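Human:
Care to share another protein and its fold?

Assistant:
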Amino acid sequence: MVRRETFVGWLFALPALLVYAVFVLLPFVLSIKYSFYRWNGIGPMTWVGTRNYETVLEVPDLLGTISNAFQLVVYFSFVPVTLGLAVASIMHRVASGRLGSVARTVLFLPQVIPLVAAGIIWGWLLALPGLINQVLKVVGLGAYTRAWLGDFDWALPAVGFIGIWVLLGFCTVLLWTGMTKLDPALYESARIDGAGWFTEFVRITIPLLRHEIGVCLTVTIIAALAAFDIVYVSTAGGPGNSTAVPGIQIYILAFTQQRIGLASALAVMLMVLVLIVVIPIQRLSRETTA
């Protein structure tokens, strides 16, 4: 009976597994294969071994995209998670009922907006004649106005700011949901012992939310390292290569320069970096919640 139920279960899962194999596993295997060849996507492939990987590590522009991606991790991951913890804690204590529902809806709204649309909107807001600069002029900070997405020094932080806006709501709602499941008796006991709000937050809330924090870090770090939509729409990797990330460079190498092997090597290296960063977070999260 058990074997029959197992067989039926696998039978129902088979269509999804086939789709996953065709659209995920097969391209993944082919990318690894192509990374060892020089190929323009049409003609014959030439075996080059690890030369494509060496090129990624030797060419400053290619290696710089990985550096930019890790800088985006700060904006896309650490800042939204930290702010999300603070905002969720305030909402959990103060905003309840309809007010809390409205606040969560407003914060989560950027998740509903397509990333392409978000990039276009923020491109307008951060332009030289955009709303951000107009506000700075009104409050007497006109000397600080600039084309934020066109400035070599500020373009990447500006893209990071867009990422914060997009991901803050996701982190806040997820962390707030976790807070609603915590036992109120723990906080009551802490208050009886004289603990303040900050002590409760550090000693009770954060340790008990490690699983949710791990999920937030995992999702946002992957979003940072694999960023493409927002960067492509808002800056296309410019000015120069100041906002170029692996996703943008892979697209340019594969579809503009027809260097499929080099693009595949960069994609494989990006995947390895994601695993190196994400797997320890997942293990730590499981260990602390076990």
In short: The chain has one domain: 35-289. The beta strands are 37-38, 46-47. The chain has 13 helices and two strands.
